[in-house]
Design a protein that fits this description.
This protein is α/β, with parallel strands linked by helices. The chain contains 6 helices and 10 strands, in the order βαββαβαβαβαβαβββ. The protein has a 10-stranded mixed β-sheet. Strand 2 and strand 3 form a beta hairpin. Helix 1 packs across helix 5.
């Protein structure tokens, strides 16, 4: 089923996530698969759908929440406040939290996004916990950006759309655990 990204759809998306199901939603870069990041069963379903079990990133509704999931130095906080919300994923050392261990897999890092897009932000606010964010594709395949192709590839997943087709390289991934920080993947975010 395809839903527009409006106020009613936020509540619909949250209801689907609370049932442990997967959604597809827009960000400020690519469309993403999302599940409740505290629900291991939902993450297992997502990993099965993507044919992968790699560490996952999460979406938070604000930079203020980062301290609940990872450690930032004072220097890194300044950078993060400049680039987020925006098309960046930051990698930081994780701390004990309510997230499923499947988010981390065997990594000691947590990937965090605060996208500059109101729809996923409102979902996280209403759900009351982070959602997983990962591109809409199977492992080792190109991310899908066209709604008609996404719908054919994943007909069983509820889709929330704002644009038919997105032109994006994805988020720029920055490892903030290194000094100086290191760009792991060039994406839409430019420093």
């Amino acid at each position: 089923m395809i839903y527009p990204c409006d106020k009613n759809s936020v509540a619909k998306a949250v209801s689907i996530l609370k049932r442990g199901e997967i959604i597809i939603y827009p960000t400020d870069t690519l469309y993403g698969f999302g599940v409740d990041a505290t629900n291991s069963k939902a993450i297992k379903s997502l990993n099965l759908l993507k044919n992968r079990s790699d560490p996952l990133s999460i979406i938070l509704s604000s930079c203020n929440q980062i301290k609940n999931y990872g450690k930032l130095t004072k220097e890194n906080k300044k950078l993060v406040n400049k680039i987020l919300p925006g098309p960046f994923t930051i990698l930081i050392n994780s701390i004990k939290s309510n997230l499923s261990q499947l988010v981390y897999e065997s990594s000691k890092y947590i990937g965090i996004r605060v996208p500059n897009h109101s729809f996923p932000i409102k979902i996280v606010e209403m759900l009351g916990c982070p959602i997983v964010t990962t591109s809409v594709n199977k492992k080792n395949q190109t991310p899908l950006n066209d709604i008609s192709i996404i719908e054919k590839a994943f007909p069983e997943v509820n889709i929330f759309k704002d644009k038919i087709n997105i032109d994006s390289k994805g988020s720029t991934i920055i490892n903030l655990t290194l000094n100086p920080y290191k760009i792991i993947r060039d994406g839409d975010g430019v420093l």
